[in-house]
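Quick one from the shared queue. A colleague (R.T.) flagged Phosphodiesterase as missing a structural entry in our internal table.

Convert sequence to structure tokens.
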Amino acid sequence: MTTIKQFLCGATVAGMVAGTGAAVGVPSGLSALTADWLLAAEHVLLIGVDGVNLSKVLEYAYGDDSGFKTAMEQGITGASSLTNHTTLSGPSWSTVLTGVWDDKHGVFNNLFRPEPYNQWPSVFNLIEYHKPEVDTTIISNWEYLNQLAGAGGYSVDNNVFVEAGDSPADSDAQVTALTIAQILGTEDNPDDISSFLFSYQSQADHAGHSFAGGSEEYMQSIINLGANIQQILAAIAHVQTITGDDWSIILTTDHGHQQTVTLPGLSIGHGFQSPNETSTFVIFDQAGDDSQDGSQNLAYSTVDITPTILSLFGIPLRSDFDGVSLVDDPSVLNSHVTPDDLQQALLAAIAMYGYPNIGNDITLAVRTVIGSVPYFLDKFVTGIDNFLQSIVDQDIFLISGLAEIAQQINEFFGGLTVDVTNTVAHGFAYLLGAGVIAPTDAPLPGAAEFTGSLESLLAGDTFTAPDVGDLDLPLLLDVDALLG
């Protein structure tokens, strides 16, 4: 299939969203047969926001101008918990994207390894294997997720990595612009190509680590994300008026954040089992089903997301999934509740969750500490490498040459140290319960062929995001007009 199917510059995005008064239905000049094709397309959008506490969303971003509230009003919200699961991003997003917990997929830290996704294929793998005609895309500013989407033997069609930029908020704005461009690209869809798009933003997690989840900086990141999501939902509302295609939308996070600074200038953020860290949520708006919009469902869990996406595309579910489909599982369908006040009902649900039993609490804490050692070593080695590279780039007589030699030594011995400690940590993580349950379903044919390294991604079908210019997204999308 295609690699980067279509991206639009800022001016084009602005032009495409101009004149939003088109009525929902068949665009003029299309035959009835073409109209049927357009209405048959299945589009699924998964929006991932890293490290977002739902309680803070309800406190800071529950206004009419926030995409969080719009998504809740247009779908069903579940306040869920990761109690008894590691609250690190690698393990948690792996659960979201494979449909199994970490006692199966075995991911225990944020250093990417491709092997888990050979045994436990990701949602990208399963879509590409069963329905390669579906156009799959990831737009992410965390490299791990781009590597995950390329692993497993049946990689994502469009793998877009967005550079860090001047700030996490700027990087998320770039992700938002590219996500909107990808959505608006479905306006011209003569072949009726169904699509799955995963859009990931990270600024709340950065704010939580730097300032803690109770800080003003974290508050501002939640407000920013609400604005970004509102613009994305507006783009979907607009394109629906052109094509008639409805979209299924899932909005989730991987974990929460501690509320206070642990050390001067530093918040550990997450990785342990306090209720603020284990707090998660799933918001699900199924295409064509508006009967229970604004409802609550306490049976929702992040492990249900991959099974749900597969069922929306008519792909059979694995027998060894931990999650279920939110579309048709009776235990989920019978758990819908429509409260008088959704905001207060969700806050009450969040307050129900606590700590795991003391044994699990200690086990998971030890696993987090051990698994974090190679991760922070890797960051230290990378920091030295970047410093030496800055000297190499200055081309200083003799000094730059010595820096280049030092860089090679650092990469060899530093990389070796990281690999060894990560292997040891992997063994300890296994002894502490990560990856101890083997799959019962057979691996996808050819799943072990892909190494998942960043170099192999860059040599293949992975692209750094194109420059979309200095976009002022609020001016590009009149949210009030599009959402009505």
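The longest strand covers residues 43-49.
Residues 18 and 245 are 19 Å apart (CA to CA).
Added to the table.
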